Amino acid sequence: MEENGEGVEEYLFKIVLIGDSAVGKSNLLSRFARNEFDSNSKATIGVEFQTQVVDIDGKEVKAQIWDTAGQERFRAVTSAYYRGAVGALVAYDISRRGTFDSIKRWLEELTTQNDSTIARMLVGNKCDLENIREVSTEEGKSLAEAEGLFFMETSALDSTNVQTAFEIVIREIYNNISRKVLNSDSYKAELSVNRVSLVNGGSKQSLLSSCCSR
Hints:
The protein is α/β, with parallel strands linked by helices and 214 residues long. The chain has helices at residues 25-34, 79-82, 97-101, 103-113, 137-147, 162-183; strands spanning 2-3, 9-19, 48-56, 59-67, 87-93, 119-125, 150-153, 190-191, 196-197.
């Protein structure tokens, strides 16, 4: 948190997108940040991020959302990518069971690489592919409940729940910080150019939602 020139508090939260290749992470980000979807998007090497401003309880919150952009296929997601993250969307493709089976490994890596309080959302993407679904909504809910994650099924293609999923994570980060300020005199938030780091753990909640009624 910092004061800008007009004395208004600003919040800058780093959020990471993780999950297997081709689950739609880049399109989730482009749909949220620019309301765009590229059906011909290619995996690229490197790290990309978008900064999006969201209003939370009248506060201007800037979410800096990082996308692994194809590195995960080489298992080259480094500690620098996770450093300072206070939120994570862990995505799988509902039409490819293998991407769902990888979720626990991604959660373990997230825990290993980052010891901050992290607001975590399990995202079952591509729910527009209901006719070739391989992972049921109930399976996604069960895993989220077991791991203490929020859960939502999304479609970057038709925009279903994308905005909501990101905003829930951003609000939970904001709530985590608010709880720390209220509950601990020794709470410290570290804000550098691109991160806020939280000290100690926070409560875990699960939000269950499905986008498909078919």
